[in-house]
Specification:
This protein has about 220 residues and is of the alpha/beta class. Helices cover about 45% and strands about 15% of the residues. The protein has one domain: Rossmann fold (3-Layer(aba) Sandwich). It starts with a strand and ends in a 13-residue tail after the last helix.
């Protein structure tokens, strides 16, 4: 079976779909077979992919909490990596999706409310871990981030004070991310690709992505 990575936060607008898109496109460019499950009723990723200039991905939708676990297990049997773009509010589907996850990524923007919601999502993962009787790893990932910004410095202090584990690499607040929602072209070169591939390397080191591609067909 391949690995399952859930992108989740109880806060909307923290770049869950952007992170999903960047990971999916760059993982596929590296030769991984990638599935994306759009678990958000808004279907932002699924709609983006319809007009995207992207490598071949297996894109499916599943918004029902009673179906999501079986759906993810079936997808992970076909793909090297299955990514889940969850809804931007507390819902049962996101919670159930954490059950089979090998990693939960929690995007956090540079503001205090994002940290509060990230901490809530982390507690949600911990609760699901207790139900599943296994450790489900999670990491906060800094999104729309300027490493030299004052708000970012304050937010980083808040994250560290909560003890939430973080991915070292951040995603910058770049115009190219916004443009990709219209153009359908998520960059596979340049600054974005370097940042995303650094995240991928960290996830490999954490065991959330296999170092070698099996290249299974979607």
């Amino acid at each position: 079976m391949g690995t399952v990575i859930v992108i989740a936060s109880s806060k909307g607008g923290v770049s869950k779909t952007t992170l999903t898109t960047a990971l999916a496109v760059n993982l596929a460019a590296l030769g991984y077979s990638v599935g994306v499950v759009d678990a958000d009723r808004n279907q932002a990723f699924a709609n983006w992919y319809k007009m995207a200039e992207a490598p071949a991905l297996s894109v499916t939708s599943c918004i029902g909490h009673n179906e999501i676990v079986g759906h993810l297990i079936a997808e992970s049997e076909k793909q090297d990596v299955t990514l889940v773009d969850s809804a931007g509010f507390e819902n049962q589907t996101a919670t159930f999706a954490m059950g089979p996850a090998d990693m939960v990524l929690i995007p956090c923007m540079p503001d205090r409310n994002s940290v509060i919601e990230a901490a809530k999502t982390a507690k949600q993962v911990q609760s699901v871990s207790q139900i599943a009787r296994r450790d489900i790893p999670y990491r906060v990932i800094k999104s729309r981030w300027n490493p030299r910004g004052l708000a970012e410095a304050a937010t980083l202090e808040d994250i560290e004070a909560t003890g939430l584990p973080m991915i070292r690499q951040h995603l910058s607040d770049l115009v190219a991310f916004q443009k990709s929602t219209y153009s359908g072209d998520m960059p596979r070169t340049g600054t974005i690709a370097r940042q995303v591939r650094s995240i991928i390397e960290e996830l490999r080191g954490l065991g959330a992505i296999e170092p070698r591609k099996k290249g299974r067909a979607a």
